[in-house]
Amino acid sequence: SQLQVAEVVGGDFAVKVRGFGRLKAKYQRYLTHSDVATVEAIHVYPGTRVQKDTVILSLANPAQAQRLSVARLELARQKAQLNEQKINQKSQILEHEAGLTLLQSELENAQLRAEAESQLIDQGIVSRLDYKRSLLAVKQLKQRVTIEQQRLVQLHAMQRERTKVQQELLQQFELNFNVQQQAFNELQVTAGIDGMLQELTVELGQNLSPGTRLGVVGSDAALKAELLIQQADAEKITLNMVAKVNTFSREVDAIVTRI
Hints:
The chain has 3 helices and 12 strands; from the N terminus they run βββββααβββββαββ.
């Protein structure tokens, strides 16, 4: 009556490993500046929730403002030169076309005169010498028309090359202006990502050198938990293993991504 009978079966054996740690931002952005500057204003302090376009610091750099002004003037001057060149080229084309039209008109008149003299030469009204002179005038005008047409084609090609060179030069000025404008815009230091300002390592009025670390912004929606596990238990953990993270306010599901 005291004998107990049981059946041994296979099954899953759950192993629980516990550890303690802290939540950290999964994505972080270090705020730096690439030029000398002075901290002019601090708009946001650590612990403040920010958007990616939130201005955190205002920096001052008079030299950068001067470089931007010079780049703007150079770009405007180059645009004006390009427009002036296009106007001059259009005027040259119109002038050549007008000369070509005049030559073509003279050619038509010479051809009509030659045709008329060819019918009057047999009647003795027009001498053969005058008729040959009219034919020679037609031939010369045809040659001049052909030459002017070729010159007009060459003028178009030459103007296209000049315009191409000026446009490439204008692109260089635009690139320089955009670089200077970007550098000037970076004097307003923005968060860059949505999250929370975690660190601010500068003070009001501080002079900054290139590459100075200004602060750190971390994501507050995407988080990671860094846990400390005893060595004996750490051997039981593998990548992609499911986990539970207790934040003391609630428990969330997680996956092991790095050991």
